[in-house]
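Example 9 (inverse folding). The structure is encoded as follows.
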């Protein structure tokens, strides 16, 4: 029985609902309208029923100032009646191969708990490793004030909001939020009874804040960006006033070695040559030999690579270390704060 695209979408959503019962219908409305696309959905079917599904969402990844194509694994779920049959591994393999064919270099995912983190570390499930970290920090009002700035509580949104956010959040290490990702996050904030506040000076957008209130009464800021410190302070004061909270905080990226670092996203390289070339171009002083092994999904990644003089070559030299595709991602990403904002994971 051949399922139509609409039926595949409907069944994929139903499987998600059964697998993640804490996710609200409003959240699923947002996800399946803004993020889901037929060409980023992978399914396994049995007798006209979707029994396993996941999405591979496209992102742009900047590392060391080089921009690469990346993927983000989302919503991987298997019907309870078909678990233990290796279906999750089959979907991940399909996704990794497709991502590589399309020029992708790295795949990311955010595990829901530590059990799933161990699940994805297994070679049969992609050999991912934790590659990005975050820490929770209070956002403090420094006392500076900005003149001639008006603050507006938004109930609708438009393209200039994303353009401002995108311009303000560029960096050398980031998984960049596309326009549909940004507006899905805005809608998610509204669905949680949160706030979207803008700051304008002479009708020019100079600041933006997304805020929600946690169960302990604090304000959580999924996004806060402003052209200067005074504008940021004004946004903070307005959010505290509107939400009736005395403390606000953000979860910000940090390197793995940071004292209060908390494991966040996992990653694995799907095209070792492409990934290492991006590193080598920005670091021509690197001279190292590294081995990659244990890639069951993309076996052509397995080999020994010499990074030197801004180039990458296959070699027979003895490697300093042999890594999994996840270990390779962690080696180069874990030492840097990788911005991954508005991912709809919490």
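The amino acid assigned to each position is listed next.
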């Amino acid at each position: 029985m051949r399922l139509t695209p609409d039926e595949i979408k409907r069944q994929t959503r139903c499987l998600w609902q059964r697998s993640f019962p804490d996710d609200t219908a409003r959240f699923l409305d947002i996800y399946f309208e803004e993020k889901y696309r037929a060409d980023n959905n992978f399914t396994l079917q049995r007798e006209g029923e979707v029994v396993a599904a996941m999405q591979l969402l496209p992102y742009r990844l900047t590392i060391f100032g080089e921009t690469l194509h990346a993927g983000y694994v989302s919503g991987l779920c298997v019907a309870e009646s078909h678990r233990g049959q290796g279906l999750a591994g089959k979907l991940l393999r399909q996704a990794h191969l497709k991502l590589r064919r399309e020029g992708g270099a790295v795949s990311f995912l955010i595990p829901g708990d530590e059990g799933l983190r161990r699940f994805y570390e297994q070679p049969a499930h992609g050999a991912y490793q934790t590659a990005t970290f975050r820490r929770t920090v209070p956002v403090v009002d420094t006392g500076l004030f900005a003149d001639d700035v008006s603050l507006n509580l938004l109930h609708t949104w438009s393209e200039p909001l994303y353009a401002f956010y995108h311009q303000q959040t560029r960096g050398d290490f980031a998984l960049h939020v596309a326009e549909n990702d940004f507006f899905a996050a805005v809608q998610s904030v509204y669905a949680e009874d949160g706030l979207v506040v803008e700051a304008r000076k002479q009708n020019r957008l100079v600041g933006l804040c997304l805020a929600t209130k946690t169960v302990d009464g604090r304000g959580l800021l999924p996004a806060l960006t402003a052209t200067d410190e005074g504008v940021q302070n004004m946004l903070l004061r307005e959010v505290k006033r509107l939400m009736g909270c005395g403390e606000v905080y953000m979860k910000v990226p940090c390197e793995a070695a940071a004292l209060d670092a908390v494991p966040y996203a996992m990653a694995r390289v799907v095209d070792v040559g492409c990934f290492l070339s991006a590193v080598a171009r920005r670091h021509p002083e690197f001279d190292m030999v590294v081995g990659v092994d244990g890639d069951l999904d993309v076996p052509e990644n397995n080999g020994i690579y010499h990074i030197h003089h801004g180039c990458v070559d296959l070699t027979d030299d003895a490697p300093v270390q042999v890594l999994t595709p996840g270990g390779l991602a962690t080696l180069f990403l874990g030492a840097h704060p990788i911005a991954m904002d508005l991912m709809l994971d919490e």
